[in-house]
Amino acid sequence: MPTVYLLYCADGSYYTGWTSNLEKRLKVHQSGRGARYTRSRLPVRLAYAEAVSDKSAALKREYQIRRLSHQQKAAMAATYHE
Description:
The chain is globular and about 30 Å long. With 82 residues, it is α+β, with helices and mostly antiparallel strands. The chain has 4 helices and 3 strands; from the N terminus they run ββααβαα. Strands 2-1-3 form a 3-stranded antiparallel sheet, sandwiched between helices. It has helices at 22-30, 36-39, 55-66, 70-79; strands at 3-9, 14-19, 44-51.
């Protein structure tokens, strides 16, 4: 199932992405082979995740989250419990 996720980076920034396999994607990010943005901001940790119905919904939700302010992303992360 597609999942939109928010990573908290070592420099205090957030990275937003989507994947069809969250566990595998997190391992890739944490190993330094993920997105260029996160490679220089290791370690990263999962701050928020949200399952969506399909790829189209994932892309739309990813765009919505990317447009949020840092404070709004922090508030989302504060409500997330794995």
